Amino acid sequence: MNHIALRPTTVLRLWVPLALTWAMMSLEGPILQSVVSRLPDAATNLAAFGVAIGIAFVVESPIIMLLSASTAYVKGAESYRVVHRVSLGLSLAVTIAMLLLVFPPVYALIATSILALPPHIAERVQHCLIALVFWPGAIGIRRFYQGVIIRARMNRYIAFGTMFRLATILAGGIALLASTGTKSAVVAAAILGSAVAIETIATWFMARRAVRLTLETTDPDNYNLTALRLLRLYTPLALTSIIAMGLGPVLVGFMSRFPAAIVSLAVYPVVDGLVFQFRAPLFAYQELAISLFATHGFLDRTIARTGYGIAAFATVVLVLITFTPMADFVYGTFPYRLDVSSVGVATIATAILLPLPLVSAVYSIHRAALIVAHHPEQVTYSTLVEAVVTVVVAGLFAVARVPIVGVYAIAGALTIGKLAASVQLWSATSRYLSRRG
Fold first, then answer.
1. How many CB atoms lie within 10 A of CB 180?
2. Domain segments of the chain as ranges
């Protein structure tokens, strides 16, 4: 293990390419939503696009943590082959799940009985999901190769791959903006699916050198990773993503039952997209922290301090946008063009979500430490805490018939749930480190 103290500049140099990747990824939603908001039937299409992406995230959830698993567990040729086989199997499984989901009887049950979607939005959502049917599987393959790249400290290649994805989004968005169709959500979903496929191909191509170096490396003598052992380590991580992503459709179901349901369904993905841009740099930090904890140990405080510094900066910028006229510009002019009443709703919802960048830093740093320490079950426990607290708070709002706009209730429930989960993560990591010390 490398005991040379890290410098913040070194951490930032390794983090910047990953942060740029997440920044570019965070732009794709706002770009497509901005285009859709300028086309006919904007409210219906924004709602349909947001719901479809939420459902696709749930299907994708089992393979979300493949990036962390690949970064943490690929150490040489044999472990590479094991993680590769498992990654391909999981990617195929989520593709089959997506195909089953768009099967009319299955989809009808989900759309009407579970999500309680208005009929005209439900039909549009189904068409969006058909356009996204290969999206989850492609992401699984891409994330596996990205982990190998990070492990080889070739982080800049990940940013290059995402540039292909963003370029496809921009080109498709411009073409969509020139159209006059009323089903812009479906076209936007198809653009997103195509962009991810292109990024996956580019990432596979650029990962060839990292793969070759990995295959030339021998696993440590005491490291015997089998498919069964990997699945035991990965299952808690997959459950973490499944639970977290599963919250999306549940919250949509709650919003459909509050006042101003259509406004909430249209505004929520827009607000979530903006706040995500300030959380994304911290998501990028998790994989970097995994790599650094594995090589420098848990006692190097530079890793955590740098992450919290990034979160503080992101929070300050988001506060300035929320409480200044910038909010009217961002939501009402560019990149979004919501109507005047929706701009006010979006601004208040954003204010409720302000703690999320700091919470994301807690998630990334403490999850990374627990994954490296082979305690992934603690990551799952924290996600369970988040899910239970969020649903309970949202349920209390609904049962009490609190007369507030649905997106406010959901934003409040999300914030409280994530704060509770961050406390659990902090506590779990502290207990583990105290036992080591």
1. 7
2. 8-436
pLDDT digit string (tens) for 348-391? 999 999 999 999 999 999 999 999 888 889 999 999 999 999 99
Top pLDDT among 374 and 323 is at 323
Measure the CA–CA gap between 28 and 50, rounded to whole angstroms: 13
**Count of H helices and E strands in the chain?**
18, 0
Burial class of residue 285 in the structure, from the number of CB atoms within 10 Å of its CB (0-12 exposed, 13-18 middle, 19+ buried): buried
Closest CA to 237 of 372, 376, 360: 376
Q: How many CB atoms lie within 10 A of CB 228?
A: 10
Q: Around Cβ 175, how many Cβ atoms within 10 Å?
A: 12
Give the whole-angstrom CA distance, residue 156 versus residue 407. Answer: 37
Q: Are 33 and 336 in contact (CB under 8 A)?
A: yes
38-67 pLDDT, tens digit each: 888 888 898 899 889 888 988 998 999 999
The residue behind tokens 């910047």 is: 16
- Alpha-carbon distance of 230 to 235, in angstroms, equals 8
CB 407 within 8 A of CB 423: no
Treating both helix axes as pointing N-terminal to C-terminal, what angle do 208-215 and 135-151 enclose, rounded to 10 degrees? 60
Q: How far is CA 149 from CA 73, 238, 262, in A?
A: 13, 21, 42
**How far is residue 198's CA from residue 165's CA, in Å, rounded to a whole number?**
6
